[in-house]
Backbone:
């Protein structure tokens, strides 16, 4: 059992198990066992706190125990009236909770004990018992999606085949035109680089690529700005480039410095370890101007080095926007000089020393398993001016624009509490005017609501003039940081998503403003706030960016909280960029991106069912990540058709058929709407990303598939009307791309200094008698196996054909390996003892 002991020895061992997901509709039963392993009694009056994304149902807890929902995802287990918790005593606690639990992500995390004295002890994460029985693997009785076990993966991979190297593309993302010959050009660490002053930065980055090559003579490289791809039939844009490789020289010509940079990335891909590369010509330009990744550093803080590594990975595949989600309910990550409480309070998570819960003016509560210790919590951390400027300059050198996001008016609890603490401090000093200058909450607000993440107090009071002052102050500080960095600031993302129903309805300030303006719906109040945000940004010369909710009009009077929202005509046009995300089946918003584009909005496609990289790769209990919009394999990102289909198939990714009439009723893009789709963005939300390793596992290789779809020419299969023919064409295209990953690109990500920690797909495997068959989702990756019960490693036999197990072998173990020797999860196949 997992445990974390304090310095003075007190500890509790915790384990957890899902008992069944079928006890009732969207209700599951679970079991917590907690054992006092400290060797001393724990006095009565203790509480054990933990985080869980599944609400515990009132009245369902075992007799003698109580589980309280504190706020957000924080819950507390107590034994009211119980005696001391004796050494070795095991507490068996059964309870029921909302929805289901089919993976490690659904389990409670981040346990800590608060003794009656107030002493707090981190306990860590529980031992999670296996998900093995059908009632543990099914979400509900209607769940027809099978678990992604070894046999399932074997079937899924069965259509893939290993391609000869000459049939596998050399350049990712796929260029418009690449004509490469058998002749070779050779570069060396001493190869000369000729570049003007306007390309000095690009020359530095190119020399870093050459530094790892062998010494000796090598061809010269000329970097220049000029016409790039006009002869390829593509529209000339700033990112276009031409790469002309001859035996003694290489020309990299870009329509701008950014185009030259893109050409250098292609040049680096064509280089072999010996410094040679094929002669030929590449003409290229991106399909979409916006090709982004969003990284959430609010839920769990990501240090500067982790962000740099993501930027390096993005740059290799010509992604050009980093959307940095800096704030949320669980954290505020950028220091603002005029408002120090934002990070003094909002960047710290844990519990105040000697208290089980955060005090007013103390740290934010533990969330998503971040733990009680503020200093070691993954929820603690922020960027000061030097940190943020370092990120901006690093990104700018790689032609990546950083778009900062400050999420409001919902998802704003960190800011709300920080400004309330500021208010209380100044009010106690007698400075009433100063106290209210940046206040974000109405002290008399009696609104009753609950956010998706179970917060009951996370929405800004948007009727307060102090809110506008707060936003303007934050924007002015951010603009100053960009100026100091020497980097242009073009847009700020204001969030705007998931404001819970009921917010503002009990706020006297909001209700008074509505009466003053003659508004009858809260949606009008919200739209006014969006307009004010847009005006503030416009005064700073900035584009407004926000999630889809900022561009939608809601009818508060409709039954059930509103009908399918429609585009708000008031914000369409220049200076407003909307990110469409919720295309999950059953949301009523499957086609909202197309409706917004048709209405005149510039739209970034951030579709959850294809581009949410925090979602689990597959329905495997050991795969980390949520799955509310489905399971997102690398293939799902690759198979996304941005302009021709809502999703890549007519089936709900959660396993239920989609009615044909619903598909027929969905919006299709008009010619003007097609022009309004400005690009694609992958989202990496941070709830399940406590470490750099987890961020990189979730990001790649899906990030590479995103880059392919955002840059490469329109995939032909999207326009094929016949479903069977379209599926065959997509399968062929995926087979080549899967080989590109398995044979080329993942090996590139293995190389130092980047050595990115991408996910290795576990093998598929089945046994027929004592003959074992195995395969892999990305052909070219090595499989190694054992038959003696030991763990396979890179020195174990390599799987190349079905394995005949000898009579003494009881099981076949196999794993996927990269060129560094890292391995995937091990797959174990029991062998037929009678075979």
Residues:
């Amino acid at each position: 059992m997992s445990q974390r002991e304090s310095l003075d020895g007190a500890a509790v061992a915790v384990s957890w198990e899902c008992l069944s997901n079928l006890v009732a509709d969207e209700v599951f039963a679970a079991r917590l066992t907690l054992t006092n392993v400290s060797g001393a009694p724990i006095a009565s009056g203790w509480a054990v706190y933990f985080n869980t994304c599944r609400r515990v149902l009132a009245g369902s807890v075992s007799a003698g125990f109580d589980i309280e929902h504190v706020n957000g995802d924080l819950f507390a287990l107590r034994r009211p009236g119980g005696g001391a918790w004796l050494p070795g005593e095991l507490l068996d606690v059964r309870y029921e909770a909302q929805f289901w639990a089919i993976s490690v992500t659904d389990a409670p995390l981040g346990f800590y004990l608060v003794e009656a004295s107030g002493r707090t002890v981190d306990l860590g994460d529980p031992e999670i018992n296996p998900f093995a029985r059908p009632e543990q693997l099914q979400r509900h009785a209607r769940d027809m999606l099978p678990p992604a076990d070894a046999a399932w993966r074997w079937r899924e991979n069965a259509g893939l085949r290993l391609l000869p190297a000459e049939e596998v593309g050399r350049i990712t993302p796929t260029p418009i035109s690449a004509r490469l010959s058998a002749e070779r050009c050779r570069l060396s660490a001493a190869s000369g680089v000729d570049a003007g002053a306007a390309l000095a930065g690009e020359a530095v980055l190119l020399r870093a690529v050459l530094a790892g090559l062998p010494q000796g003579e090598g061809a010269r490289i000329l970097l220049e700005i000029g016409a790039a791809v006009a002869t390829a039939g593509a529209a000339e844009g700033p990112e276009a480039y031409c790469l002309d490789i001859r035996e003694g020289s290489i020309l990299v010509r870009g329509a701008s410095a950014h185009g030259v940079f893109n050409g250098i990335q292609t040049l680096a891909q064509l280089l072999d370890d010996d410094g040679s590369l094929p002669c030929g010509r590449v003409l290229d330009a991106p399909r979409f101007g916006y090709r982004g990744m969003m990284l959430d550093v609010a839920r769990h803080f990501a240090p500067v080095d982790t962000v740099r590594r993501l930027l390096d990975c993005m740059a290799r595949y010509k992604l050009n926007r980093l959307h940095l989600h800096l704030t949320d309910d669980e954290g505020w990550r950028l220091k603002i000089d005029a408002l120090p409480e934002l990070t003094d309070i909002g960047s710290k998570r844990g519990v105040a020393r000697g208290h089980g819960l955060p005090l007013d003016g103390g740290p934010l509560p533990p969330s998503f398993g971040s733990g009680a210790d503020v200093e070691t919590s993954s929820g603690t951390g922020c960027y000061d001016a030097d940190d943020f400027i370092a990120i901006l300059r690093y990104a700018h050198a790689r032609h990546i624009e950083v778009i900062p996001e400050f999420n409001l008016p919902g998802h704003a609890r960190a800011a709300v509490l920080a400004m309330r603490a500021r208010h209380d401090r100044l009010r106690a000093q007698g400075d009433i005017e100063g106290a209210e200058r940046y206040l974000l909450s109405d002290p008399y607000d009696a609104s009753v609501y609950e956010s998706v993440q179970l917060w009951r107090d996370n929405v800004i009071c948007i009727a307060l003039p102090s809110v506008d002052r707060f936003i303007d102050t934050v924007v002015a500080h951010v603009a100053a940081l960009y100026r100091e960095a020497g980097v242009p600031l073009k847009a700020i993302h204001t969030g705007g998503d998931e404001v819970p129903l009921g917010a503002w309805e009990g706020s006297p300030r909001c209700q008074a403003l509505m009466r003053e303006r003659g508004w009858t719906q809260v949606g009008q109040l919200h739209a006014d706030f969006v307009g004010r945000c847009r005006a503030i940004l416009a005064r700073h010369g900035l584009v407004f960016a926000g999630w889809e909710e900022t561009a939608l009009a809601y009818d508060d009077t409709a039954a059930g909280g509103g009908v399918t929202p429609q585009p708000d005509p008031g914000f369409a046009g220049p200076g407003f960029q909307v990110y469409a995300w919720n295309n999950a089946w059953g949301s009523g918003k499957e086609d909202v991106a197309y409706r917004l584009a048709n209405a005149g909005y510039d739209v970034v496609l951030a579709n959850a069912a294809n581009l949410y990289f925090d979602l689990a790769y597959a329905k495997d209990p050991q795969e980390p990540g949520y799955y509310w919009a489905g399971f997102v394999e690398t293939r799902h990102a690759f198979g996304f058709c941005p302009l021709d289909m809502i999703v890549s198939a007519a089936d709900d990714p959660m396993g239920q058929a989609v009615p044909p009439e619903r598909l027929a009723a969905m919006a299709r893009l008009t010619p003007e709407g097609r022009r309004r789709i400005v690009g694609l963005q992958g989202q990496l939300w941070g709830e399940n990303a406590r470490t750099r390793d987890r961020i990189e596992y979730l990001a790649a290789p899906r990030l590479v598939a995103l880059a392919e779809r955002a840059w490469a020419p329109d995939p032909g299969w999207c326009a094929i009307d016949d479903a069977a023919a379209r599926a065959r064409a997509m399968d062929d295209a995926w087979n080549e791309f899967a080989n590109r990953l398995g044979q080329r690109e993942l090996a590139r990500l293995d190389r130092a200094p980047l050595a990115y920690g991408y996910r290795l797909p576990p093998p598929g495997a089945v046994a027929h008698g004592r003959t074992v068959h195995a395969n892999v989702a990305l052909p070219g990756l090595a499989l190694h196996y054992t038959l003696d019960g030991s763990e396979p490693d890179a020195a174990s036999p390599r799987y190349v054909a079905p394995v005949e197990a000898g009579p003494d072998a009881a099981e076949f173990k196999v794993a996927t390996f990269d060129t560094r020797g890292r391995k995937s999860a091990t797959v174990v196949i029991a062998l037929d003892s009678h075979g």
In short: The two ends are 37 Å apart (CA to CA). The CA atoms of residues 253 and 643 lie 30 Å apart. DSSP finds 20 helices and 33 strands in the chain.
